[in-house]
Each structure stands twice: as structure tokens, then as C-alpha cells.
């Protein structure tokens, strides 16, 4: 096959994004709002977004932080907790305030202390979501500290997700940021109402990247990077054209000093590089023809929203990732793959 020098795709959406709040929101939002038309916004603020008035107020802050000329729709989510009331979720969905509901097992990751203690604790809410076609977005890791950190996703599938799918077979579920062969297999063989987002880091790097010549805090995220065999299977599944995988960056900025710390935060700020990384991975798999479905078609299909009208063009042209990004009022944030050279860049007019 002759080498592609450019590829034009429908404008992508990011189906999993952390924008934070305040100065950080203002600083990081443009990296998403420039190249994506819509994003599913994660609700794990320091005070989790559980109630509709808080979600509406946050959406207004996101819209107010948009740079002039950027057209970007933040699709909001509610943070599921043991005290979530089903009627409030249904009301939020029916009024177009909420697009989905996020389930964090309690203590699974950043700002998840208020997460769900067990599926039975939220069953009435989930039943109601199934009835109304509201998607449940899942951080799929068990939190039992006796389970090896590299096994937590696979264990979650067996002990939580599969029983949940049996209990509520029609519930729309997105397994977020999948990382393992087990998850890839489950999605490939699964029903139409089960889909997954895939991050750039989990199809580009394996766990060696955590320890390359020393400890690499900027490659630390949750779920943690896995062995090469998992990365390779994930890349193969995603580039196979299966419609139930779509783009979700999980871009999760933290201040530099919170990552480069004795107890560093989990999360990779990948919004500036994600599309270049995905293009490079699809090219490696000889599957550039399937990139657009992953970035721009499969997600809208699952969420039953129209595909975007606008397009963007990626060029086969080196992109040197900045070493650091200054965020006004915050300080430095180190982007994912800082200082590295990627082989695809986004065409700017
Ligand atoms: O690495 C992660 N960072 N994983 C998550 O699930 C949350 C995210 C964050 O909010 O920082
Ligand atoms: Zn996330």
C-alpha cells in the first residue's frame, strides 16, 4: 500500500474527558475544543457532580471558558453514588442536561471516594437507566487492595460487569479506557449495547514505559499501563473496525508538582497529542482507513447523535510535543509524550 501523506476525517468527538475547573479548566479546554466538536465531560471534580444544579452550573463554566470561535459541546455526566436518586437522573436526561452517568467504584481513582460501594446499592438507578436508555459509563477496576493492580480490570469484568450484564441485559454500557485482552475480547464478542473507549496511552505504550530509564510519573494513569500482549491485542481489536470501540482520550491534567511527587497523581494530559497518537497507531496497523470510524462515527452511533458536519485533516508531518505547557494561574502541566516526536500533525489553516 502506498504511504498516505494526509487524511481527512469528520471532526472527532472525545467520549471521555476530564476538564477540571477554574484556572485549569480555562487552560486545558482549548486543547480539546479546537479539534473536537463534542466531549463527554467527567464528573470527578473535587466535589463530585452528583446533583443537577451543580452539573448545570459546571456546564455553564465550561461554556464560559471556551475561546472565541471554538464551537464545542460539553456533554455532561452525573457522578453515581449510593445516594443517587433515580428520578433525578431520568429528569436530567429527559431535559437534555445529562448525556450519561459515570460509575466509579469507591476509591478506584482520582476523586472517587464518593463512588459506588456495590452494584446492589445502585440497582434501582440502573434499572431506571435501562428503562430510559441512559448510558452507564464504567471505570472498570475492582478496588480490593489484595488484588494486583495489573489484574484489577480483568477481575472487574468477571466479578462485576458480567453479573451486571446478566442482571440488566439491555442497559447501555461503556466500559471506559479498556486496557486488557480480556476487555478487548469481551467487547468484540459482546452485544450492541456494550461499547468501550480507548485512550492513546493504552494502545501506544506498554507498562515498560513506566520504568524507561527511571520512574516515569507522566505515564502513570489508571487503569495502569499493561503488558505488551495486552497493548497489542487492544490495538488489533480497535483497528479491526469493530464499531463498539471509540475515541475517549481520558485526558486528565494534573499540575506538574502533583505528578512529580512522592505520591504522584494518576492521569495523563493527552489532549494536545491524542489525535496524532491515534493516527500513528492506526498507520502502524495498516488501518488508516478505519481511523475515522473510531474517532468520529462509532461514538455518535452508540450515543445516537449525528456525526459532525465539519472535517479535520491530519498530515504526515512530524509533531514535536512541547516539553511543558504553561497554564495561567496554575503553573506547568506536562503533556503526555512531552518532548517526543510523533509522525502525524493536525493541519491548521
Ligand atoms: O488516571 C486517571 N486519572 N484515571 C482516572 O480514572 C481518573 C483520572 C483523573 O481524574 O485524574
Ligand atoms: Zn477518566
From TrEMBL:
One cellular component (GO) term of this entry: cytosol
Residue positions binding substrate: 18-20, 44, 139, 222, 254, 266
Pathway it works in: Pyrimidine metabolism; UMP biosynthesis via de novo pathway; (S)-dihydroorotate from bicarbonate: step 3/3
Main enzyme class: hydrolase
Residues annotated to bind Zn(2+) 2: 102, 139, 177
Cofactor(s) this protein cannot do without: Zn(2+)
Residues binding Zn(2+) 1, per UniProt: 16, 18, 102, 250
Listed Gene3D superfamilies: Metal-dependent hydrolases
Domain of life: Bacteria
EC number: 3.5.2.3
Metal-binding keyword on record: yes
Record text on cofactor binding: Binds 2 Zn(2+) ions per subunit.
Segments forming domain Amidohydrolase-related: 14-306
Single GO BP term: 'de novo' UMP biosynthetic process
Keyword field: Hydrolase, Metal-binding, Pyrimidine biosynthesis, Zinc
Residues that bear N6-carboxylysine: 102
Gene Ontology terms for molecular function: dihydroorotase activity; zinc ion binding
InterPro entries: Amidohydro-rel, DHOdimr, Dihydroorotase_CS, Metal_Hydrolase
Family: Belongs to the metallo-dependent hydrolases superfamily. DHOase family. Class II DHOase subfamily.
Described purpose of this protein according to its UniProt entry: Catalyzes the reversible cyclization of carbamoyl aspartate to dihydroorotate.
Name by which UniProt lists this protein: Dihydroorotase
The species this protein was found in: Orbus hercynius
Source taxonomy: Bacteria, Pseudomonadati, Pseudomonadota, Gammaproteobacteria, Orbales
Amino acid at each position: 500500500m502506498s504511504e498516505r501523506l494526509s487524511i481527512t476525517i469528520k471532526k472527532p468527538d472525545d467520549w471521555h474527558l476530564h476538564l477540571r475547573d477554574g484556572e485549569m479548566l480555562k487552560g486545558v479546554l482549548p486543547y480539546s475544543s479546537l479539534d473536537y466538536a463534542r466531549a463527554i465531560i467527567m464528573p470527578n471534580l473535587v466535589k463530585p457532580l452528583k446533583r443537577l444544579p451543580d452539573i448545570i452550573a459546571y456546564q455553564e463554566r465550561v461554556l464560559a471558558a471556551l475561546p472565541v470561535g471554538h464551537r464545542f459541546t460539553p456533554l455532561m455526566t452525573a457522578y453515581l453514588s449510593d445516594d443517587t436518586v433515580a428520578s433525578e437522573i431520568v429528569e436530567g436526561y429527559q431535559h437534555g442536561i445529562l448525556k450519561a452517568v459515570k460509575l466509579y467504584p469507591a476509591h478506584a481513582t482520582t476523586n472517587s471516594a464518593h463512588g459506588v460501594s456495590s452494584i446492589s446499592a445502585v440497582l434501582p438507578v440502573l434499572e431506571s437507566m435501562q428503562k430510559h436508555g441512559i448510558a452507564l459509563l464504567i471505570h472498570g477496576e475492582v478496588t480490593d487492595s489484595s488484588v494486583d493492580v495489573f489484574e484489577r480490570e480483568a477481575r472487574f469484568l468477571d466479578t462485576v460487569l458480567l453479573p451486571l450484564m446478566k442482571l440488566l441485559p439491555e442497559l447501555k454500557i461503556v466500559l471506559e479506557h479498556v486496557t486488557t485482552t480480556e476487555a478487548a475480547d469481551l467487547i468484540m464478542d459482546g452485544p450492541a449495547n456494550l461499547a468501550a473507549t480507548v485512550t492513546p496511552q493504552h494502545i501506544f505504550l506498554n507498562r515498560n514505559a513506566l520504568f524507561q530509564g527511571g520512574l516515569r510519573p507522566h505515564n502513570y494513569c489508571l487503569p495502569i499501563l499493561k503488558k505488551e500482549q495486552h497493548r497489542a491485542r487492544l490495538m488489533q481489536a480497535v483497528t479491526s473496525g469493530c464499531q463498539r470501540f471509540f475515541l475517549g482520550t481520558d485526558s486528565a491534567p494534573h499540575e506538574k508538582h502533583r505528578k512529580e511527587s512522592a505520591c504522584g497523581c494518576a492521569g495523563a494530559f493527552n489532549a494536545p497529542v491524542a489525535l496524532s497518537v491515534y493516527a500513528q497507531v492506526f498507520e502502524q496497523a495498516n488501518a488508516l482507513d478505519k481511523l475515522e470510524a473510531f474517532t468520529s462515527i462509532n461514538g455518535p452511533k452508540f450515543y445516537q447523535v449525528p456525526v459532525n458536519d465539519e472535517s479535520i485533516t491530519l498530515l504526515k508531518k512530524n509533531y514535536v510535543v512541547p516539553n511543558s505547557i504553561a497554564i495561567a494561574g496554575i503553573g506547568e502541566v506536562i503533556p503526555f509524550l512531552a518532548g517526543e516526536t510523533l509522525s502525524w500533525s493536525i493541519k491548521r489553516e
